[in-house]
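Materials and Methods. Structural model of RNA chaperone ProQ. The 238-residue sequence of RNA chaperone ProQ from Rheinheimera aquimaris was retrieved and submitted for structure prediction as follows.
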Amino acid sequence: MRMLQMKKSEALMTTPSEQNVKAGNVKEVLAYLAVKFPACFSVSGEAKPLKIGIFQELAQRLQDDTTVSKTQLRQALRVYTSSWRYLESTKEGVSRIDLDGNAGDVIDASQAEHASKVLEESKAKAAQKRKAKIAEAKSQATAEKPAYKKSANKKPTAASKSTKVNQKPVSNTEAPAKAAPVLERIPAEHVVVGGKVLLKLGQSPMLATVLEISKDDVTVQLGSGMVIKTRQDSLYIA
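The predicted structure was written out as C-alpha cells:
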C-alpha cells in the first residue's frame, strides 16, 4: 500500500516538460530550438551566424531532453545553415554567436566568400527547378489540349443563332484574395489550463492547448503532440 502511494506521488510530481513528445520533422525541431534558445535560433527574419562547434554545445545542453535526438539536431542544423537567410547573414566582420547569443569569433573573408558562393549556387538551382516545372506544366497543357478540327463552312441555322445570343460571357474576374487573419494577443487572465490558444511560430500560428502556467511562462501542447514552454506574451486568442 505504501509503495502504491509512492508511485502515485511520483506520477503527480512529473511535469509536462518531462513528458515531452519527440519532434516529428525538421520544421518542428527548428521551432523547438527557436523557443528553447531564442537568442540563437529564429524561424523567420534575419538569422545570426552560429559559432563553430554549436552542435557539441547543443548536444550537451539537450542531453537529458527527449524531445530531439542527436540525428535530428544534425539534420536541423544542416537545413538551418543552408537556408538563404542564414547564408545572407554570413558576412565578413559579423560575429558568430553561441546558444545564449554571446558574440564569439568573427567571420573572415574566406568564410564570407564561401557562404556567398553557396548562396549563389542554391539560387541558381532553384531557378532551374522553376523553369523545369513551368516547361513541364506547358507540355502537359499542350498534350491535354484537344486537336482542332476544321468544320465544313455551313450557314448557321436559326437555332444556332439564338444559342449564340443567349450564351453568357465568361467572367475573367478572379475572387479577391483572403486577407491574412489578424492575431489578437490573449489577456493573461484568459490563459487557463486546458484552454485553447494560438502560438505563433514563424509566419503561421499553430493551435495549442495550455498544460501548465508558471508566472509569465506557459507550457502548451501542439496538435502534433509536441510540448513547448513559452511566454504568455507570445500567445494569441484562438
